[in-house]
Amino acid sequence: MSVAIDLSNKVALVTGASQGIGAQIARTFHRAGCRVALNHPNAGNGQTARDTAQVADELNRLRPDSARVEAADVRQPEAVRAMMQNVMREFGGVDFLVNNAAIIRDRTISKMSLDEWNEVIAVNLSGVFHCCKFGLEIMRDGGAIVSMGSIAALQGFYGQTNYAAAKAGVLAMTRVLSRECARRSIRVNAIAPGVIETAMAATIPDEVRQGMLKNIPLQRFGEPREIAEVVLFLCSPMASYVTGQTIEVNGGWRG
After folding, report:
1. How many domains does the chain have?
2. Which of 13, 29, 65, 203 could serve as 37's disulfide partner, Cβ 3.0–4.6 Å?
3. For residue 5, is it within any domain?
4. How far apart are CA 53 and CA 190, in angstroms?
5. Band of pLDDT at residue 200, cut at 50, 70 and 90
6. How far is residue 53's CA from residue 19's CA, in Å, rounded to a whole number?
């Protein structure tokens, strides 16, 4: 007997949805019946905007008017507030918020610039705060928030002072919000992925990759699908008694 997750008539907002894990989360929620708002920062050369539009077009071809693109830099509170109001107008509110937007600026602390510290904290930690704060204003009771932590917050990888600190902050924020949101039956959880096969992971030198694999009992890196499906589970009725938790999805990594 199969067990299906049906989230028809629900609305999911995914930040950092232009590619990799974020795009796969959007596809997975759409496949479960959700209408999806796909966020991108509208920065740089516009590539994230083009990539996000491509994902939204893909989803709308499958089910017309089921996906919309929302440009907002999560570092900017007013941009996030405006995005939430757009989602409210377009979809009538949100049921699931997935905080996926993140950047890396790896460097040892002695060489890390103040800008590299501030950039990562602004996107990876303050950005989650902004999205939760203003997202809760339009979230329907009984909804769910899932934020991306990282194995880096638990392992403390060399050269990732800024990234690890930000992701550890996300895990702590998750525990607090799970208490604050419980009165509205909104569940708040986090995921701490291991190394996932994304464009970011592709930049890891081969010798470093081989060293990482030695710490993973499953002897492989994860796929974006494997993160997206855990996010879907945490937002589904199957996880109705799960809140305030960090789920490690890392192939059994114990470094």
Report:
1. 1
2. 13
3. no
4. 27
5. confident
6. 11
